[in-house]
Amino acid sequence: MDIQELRSSNPDHWMRATAIRALALDAVAAANSGHTGMPIGMADVATVLYGNHLKYDAQNPEWHDRDRFILSAGHGSMLLYALLYLSGDPEVTLDQVKNFRQWGAKTAGHPENFLLKGVETTTGPLGQGIANSVGFAMAEEMLRARFGKKLVDHYTYVIAGDGCLMEGVSQEAIGLAGRYGLGKLIVFWDNNDITIDGKVSLSDRTDQVKRFKASGWHVQEIDGHDPVAIDAAIIAAKKSKSPSMIACKTHIALGHAAQDTSKGHGALTNADQNTAAKDNWGWKTGPFEVPADIKSWWEATGSRGAADRAEWEARLNEVSAQRQAEFARVMNGEAPKKLSATIKALKKQISENAPKVATRKASEMALEVINPIMPETIGGSADLTGSNNTLTGDMGVFDTDNRKGRYIYWGIREHGMASAMNGMSLHGGVRPYGGTFMAFTDYARPPMRLAALMKTPTIFVMTHDSIGLGEDGPTHQPVEHLAISRATPNTLVFRPADAVETAEAWEIALRQTGTPSVLSLTRQNLPTVRLEHKNSNLVEKGAYVLAEAEGKRQAIIIATGSEVEIALAARDALQAEGIGTRVVSMPCMELFAQQDEAYRKRILPAGPVRVGVEAAVRQGWDRWLLGERGREAKADFVGMDRFGASAPAETLYEKFGITADNVAAKVRALLG
Amino acid sequence: MDIQELRSSNPDHWMRATAIRALALDAVAAANSGHTGMPIGMADVATVLYGNHLKYDAQNPEWHDRDRFILSAGHGSMLLYALLYLSGDPEVTLDQVKNFRQWGAKTAGHPENFLLKGVETTTGPLGQGIANSVGFAMAEEMLRARFGKKLVDHYTYVIAGDGCLMEGVSQEAIGLAGRYGLGKLIVFWDNNDITIDGKVSLSDRTDQVKRFKASGWHVQEIDGHDPVAIDAAIIAAKKSKSPSMIACKTHIALGHAAQDTSKGHGALTNADQNTAAKDNWGWKTGPFEVPADIKSWWEATGSRGAADRAEWEARLNEVSAQRQAEFARVMNGEAPKKLSATIKALKKQISENAPKVATRKASEMALEVINPIMPETIGGSADLTGSNNTLTGDMGVFDTDNRKGRYIYWGIREHGMASAMNGMSLHGGVRPYGGTFMAFTDYARPPMRLAALMKTPTIFVMTHDSIGLGEDGPTHQPVEHLAISRATPNTLVFRPADAVETAEAWEIALRQTGTPSVLSLTRQNLPTVRLEHKNSNLVEKGAYVLAEAEGKRQAIIIATGSEVEIALAARDALQAEGIGTRVVSMPCMELFAQQDEAYRKRILPAGPVRVGVEAAVRQGWDRWLLGERGREAKADFVGMDRFGASAPAETLYEKFGITADNVAAKVRALLG
């Protein structure tokens, strides 16, 4: 690449873009870690995007109608920090840039949405950003349909690297964006031919242009260092009714000794080479110094959107107060006031009628009263709608000709669904929930973890939550997935025992603003165990006494979900023998752990023997069985210590010993 | 679709294929669950494949040089069971077919490789089969290169549905097969336009032909009910030097009332409709009855390969006894005899030199002595070769022009890599291991679970196993992934403390024949803690006393991996105060759990207080801290209860309190 020609052909642009390059070079060198080459390679694209197109107001990074910019290639985080610093984001000071990757800095190794308002989504695990972006773009379409383009009308831009495109989830994202005609989604592919192990061709020879076209995308190929070509491509992409991919041929670590090599992917810390690169670029100021004229241009760019924002605010003020309030409510993720009364009414009705239904069906019953009063809910399933019970009659189906539709047929794409739901949550204004089988939590693990890390209140509706699914066999029967979800910080895992607990769990999940929820629901029917209506939400405490011991309390049986019924039957048997037995329903271990010690001790007093029952592995249970600091109780567990098998559900419960008889026997054995 | 025309144009073929249809219809109806439509739709393809092409010997389903047939669309399991029954697989009797999906039957809901020899791989979680097949085809290429085509020369056939192709992992598989020119891989796409939720177009409009072509595949489009076209396409595919995809336009539930509908995907149990379908097909015999002439044809098909097998055995007998023994050894997955001595020599050298190295580096040191004596090992990494330390000098790189290469650049495809490694393990003759960052266990979860379920001894080399990876931050720092791996049945999770334990862990992992291993390895350097050489493999016991208490034993500190160093330092501080403290290194909880109670009690006697240390969540530890039945010890834990952060590793350990000071303080507090 002839740097001199690049410098001379568009000198102003060159120096603006090189401000990004120099900051990335300096920050990575100072941190002695990070990724220098990508920000250098994509500086031109980013400069044209921010300079000429991106609708944003650097001083107000959370303005609702901003264009979204997602750095899917998150390792190139200094590209984003440089953009935010240069254009005047108040959080990204020069000190922050200098403290890149250090303790307490907001400029973390990878962009973290919970550290900086200017970061739309946490990226780094490759492919997630491009899959998030599908959700961002869907949310925009939905809100535009609901509130009108005067309030919602923006683009979603993505920079994705070769790594993002090799990850399978990218195919799910590409397929979804193509299918749903997300024309306001524009992806720049940083086509630099380099991965960590070497040339891209070492491991992939896919023709990405053909691949995107196969899914109905609008595709352009440009020189990613030519600002005129970049600008023209963005203009064309914005006009396209299909999602757009702009293949940007770039040179990683452009102008540096490491250019076009996999060394250029990582941290460039050789001082002499870095000095030579700056010379090559024509960059004369010292480390972290940006010439005033260049900084001024960037700040002007950063405030370009202030007028747009003011106009938008004026338009917002023109709509009715009620509409303004509703817009604010959904953008802030607040549940409607009547949610509480709605759930109470449903609970009362359930306790009275005592239906025997699967909790997946109970979930549908809850959604049937929730969806009409929460127009922000967006349902969906990864091709298991009838099994996950996620669709209610009033939703309508989201499609190219029905942007008001609130139900999404995600196809067989659990990973893409979960990532896109995270994108929706992050965009704001919608409240996504989506279903698959609990065992396929495995496919959705990367975004389920990221939901927790990013503090997005995405709701995962995981049905068929144990061997209770029966004949489909061990590939479809979760045994470790409750433990997996519970092991993840900042995640609420609900395993409701009946339709009342399911309604309560939904209410709690919908009130979260910073925590994702996993609803673990049965395939098989369960009796109503909450026969006495209570206004208060008992699931909120995580665990509570469902049936008290009669006589001296000798044993406590703790159970969740479908095994609460078994615990109650075991209690009946034990009480008949005079063994006073309490049954504790524990629908949410995380919420129980958050209660004060007095409450926890009231529910699980030291002394009585304890038996836990859950059709899953024991891992995660010992804290409640053995006592939080040890020496509290003699205890045992009835559950699964192996994979399941293919047979009718009742047979499996019997064969694997998850029965009232077995629970009662364990209690007796512990009592010696 | 005009069934009469199909019946009359190829009447013999029609009835042979319809035997599959009728068996699937009957078995699903009897089980009252399962998937009828897919076996009906793909019966023609399967009949031509088995009848004219597939090299197999039904009586000897494990013959090493058979063609492999993988039903990626595993829900259509009755297709496979019908094929095995009809062609005379001795395990698949008519009783087995009649007991489809029942307790104890080998004919499980989805095909399970551990129940039936004739099932190559467990499928059901969509996309796994097609990704496994990449490993099968790679293993064939590698073994052909090593042992010659006289011993190894076969095809890998796959039936994949729309669900398989929508799952992201299929793109990883398609990319890999295209890149590595796996010409003996032939995929039939069951192009029936139907998913569970409705038409495929509901959620996807990808042009699959263009998509496969974009990755360099040979693609044909045929009528999947035309036996002449199917035959011609297979002949052409076999000649292709590129992997082949045959798009088979089919009708799900062909000839049934549910044809071409999503109802046809599931269990067709309406007796009248089923009778009508059989009439339509011209099938006159009763349930589960196959006319003798048709059964004879199928049995002849099933024994067609017997001659091939005999010739192959003759060729095998022609090679040297040594070569025969080596072939048998690798196909049986036996480690070489000298492995033990090799590991001992390495351990001795490490204990003498006491290097301070990361366990990822220690893993490389182990591989440097293992790979030369185990020509069956196949290494690789998902684009982190230099970080995972998985490549040793002698391996060579697998490529289109170097099939003897033993190292695979998997690209940024953790899911595809792990699935393909499972395929290799299942094929036999090779011993795959592959690396990524421990946090990206998330991407590989579906095949990591399947490895455990399928009893394949795949080795997952997971480096950068804690906050110790430092600046890359929380997206890259596992905290829950040890718990996740440990929650999975039949999985050995090793977290070695130094280079000696790493070598021991490798030896154990390589000796497994039915259990996958996860090696959890550090980025950061660790001192050698095993300074005294022992011939015996201490990791084999799962946990052992690394440093005994001096004086009265008041405390036991249990630690793994990088935290063993911290435990030893805490012990020093406590001993200095006269607090007798034992340090237990626990590199593998699963192996420790397998020891007899006497051993476990010797290592963890009741009485002394216990503190666990691991830079991860506590989940999974309580059994060892609190005692297996409760009331054993007062205990505490030092680890992580949140996600990590971006900063240098030492800072993070300090800030998160994973320090010797904190461990010692916890011990003191427990001792009160």
TrEMBL record, chains A, B:
<dbReference type="Pfam" id="PF00456">
    <property type="entry name" value="Transketolase_N"/>
</dbReference>
<dbReference type="GO" id="GO:0004802">
    <property type="term" value="F:transketolase activity"/>
</dbReference>
<keyword id="KW-0460">Magnesium</keyword>
<dbReference type="Pfam" id="PF22613">
    <property type="entry name" value="Transketolase_C_1"/>
</dbReference>
<dbReference type="InterPro" id="IPR005478">
    <property type="entry name" value="Transketolase_bac-like"/>
</dbReference>
<comment type="subunit">
    <text>Homodimer.</text>
</comment>
<dbReference type="Pfam" id="PF02779">
    <property type="entry name" value="Transket_pyr"/>
</dbReference>
<dbReference type="InterPro" id="IPR005475">
    <property type="entry name" value="Transketolase-like_Pyr-bd"/>
</dbReference>
<keyword id="KW-0106">Calcium</keyword>
<dbReference type="InterPro" id="IPR033247">
    <property type="entry name" value="Transketolase_fam"/>
</dbReference>
<dbReference type="InterPro" id="IPR005474">
    <property type="entry name" value="Transketolase_N"/>
</dbReference>
<keyword id="KW-0808">Transferase</keyword>
<feature type="domain" description="Transketolase-like pyrimidine-binding">
    <location>
        <begin position="357"/>
        <end position="528"/>
    </location>
</feature>
<dbReference type="InterPro" id="IPR029061">
    <property type="entry name" value="THDP-binding"/>
</dbReference>
<dbReference type="InterPro" id="IPR009014">
    <property type="entry name" value="Transketo_C/PFOR_II"/>
</dbReference>
<dbReference type="InterPro" id="IPR055152">
    <property type="entry name" value="Transketolase-like_C_2"/>
</dbReference>
<comment type="similarity">
    <text>Belongs to the transketolase family.</text>
</comment>
<dbReference type="InterPro" id="IPR020826">
    <property type="entry name" value="Transketolase_BS"/>
</dbReference>
<protein>
    <recommendedName>
        <fullName>Transketolase</fullName>
        <ecNumber>2.2.1.1</ecNumber>
    </recommendedName>
</protein>
<keyword id="KW-0786">Thiamine pyrophosphate</keyword>
<keyword id="KW-0479">Metal-binding</keyword>
